[in-house]
Amino acid sequence: MNEVYRVPVLEGDRICADAALSLTALAFRIPVEEMTRRERIRLRACRARWSAMYLAHVSFGWPLERVAHAFGLNRATASTACRWAEDERDRADYDHLMEGLELALKRLLDLPRVDLAPEIVKGYR
């Protein structure tokens, strides 16, 4: 039996993790696809993914296990990622970038939700 065990993840958690990945990918100029590959990735992409995991951890207040599950990884990886990112925050440039990403992510999630399929208006579908 070679099936990979996957913990069920709430759709909302996956969407939030995707938002953190997308913002981080934009900030570091690394495609999300490169950051989320299952095979070995280059160091820049790995550190960008770790930054996204840390961003989710601090922005959403998620425990490491929830971060790991939302990103499809294990808790040890999430712990390593957050420990590395926390150490990197000693660098002024990285700290400034992460502060901006945290603010952007929080503002994005504070926006009102808009129904893309409101009730059918008479005469329209």
Automatic annotation (TrEMBL):
What residue ranges carry the coiled-coil annotation? none
Q: Which InterPro entries match?
A: DnaA_C (IPR013159), Trp_repressor/repl_initiator (IPR010921)
Chromosomal replication initiator DnaA C-terminal domain segment(s): 16-85
Q: Which residues cross the membrane?
A: none
Instruction: Return the CDD domains for the record.
Output: Bac_DnaA_C
Q: What is this protein called?
A: Chromosomal replication initiator DnaA C-terminal domain-containing protein
Q: Which species is the source of this protein?
A: Brevundimonas terrae
